[in-house]
Predict the structure.
Amino acid sequence: MSSILSESSSICPFCGSDAPGVYITRRDGVYFILECPVHGMHEEKVENDVDSFLYRYEMDYSPGPKHLVFPLTYRCNMKCPYCYSLSNTPEGNRVADRNRSQIESILSGRTENIMFSGGEPTIRQDLPDLILHAKTLLPDRRVSIATNGLKLANPSYAETLKESGLDFILFSLHDSGYEPERIPGRKMQALENMGRYNIPVWLSRTIDNVRQIDSLLTILERFRKVIFHVTLRSAKPYGYFNPGKEIFISDILKYLGKERDHEKGRSPFNCYIRIAGRRVKVSSWVCDTGRLDPIDDDILIVDDRILPLHRGLRLDPILISQHTKKQTA
Ligand code: SF4
């Protein structure tokens, strides 16, 4: 027995075409089902706890992007298991870094805050200049980077970015069970440097096991002065790996004993809780192109088009080709 909850839209995972989508509830969870005119039906489970989903579904979808996410490069100095940008793949390596005049023409007249992303933006030797340039073009806007933080373990590099006008970092910091052994030590050093040079940190953690939340609590206690916001999200099968058993938002809320103790977000795919005195956004990913991004209110540049973040990622030719290969393998 299933019932339709609401209608939306998506893109076909085989060809990337627009496809109408619908949320339905079944006994074992909530599903998002799309229908491509060429490739037929495709479904994705988005939550295994129907009551939790319906509780979060009462929401305010009012739009209003806060950040323009600007990939500077597809290159990266890491290879994370659930990387969504598929950095270091042959397809990614064929995409040229954006040059300064492209950046200037896209940023000109924008009203959002700017977040340079990648790949890994610190790979760019000219990143300090680009930050300075963005601050000059948009003096009232905040300029940040989405980074894995490895280069920020070098104190003089952290200081250089601060002097360039960097306002904050979105720092991907995962559990030691998730990242290679040598990584967490360097990332801890980077966090120390952020405190030393007064660069606020928005921490982003992806988990493929709810017990990986425990080490997040320890870090929030230790770096309580420098971390101002947290995004906690479950791994989804959009990168190199399929996590197998998926974690849903309800699993995270149950693990933390916060099933009903949260603020609503802009969609059922994000909600806010407090952990160790910090506001934490708990997110999950679904390719619902009919709404503002289910995770963040951000917009992204793909080629020279500016799109809602989730739609942009899934329309990215690199992602589409990789995803399509998986589906047909
Ligand atoms: S997730 Fe980020 S840090 Fe990891 S490989 Fe991808 S771009 Fe690099």
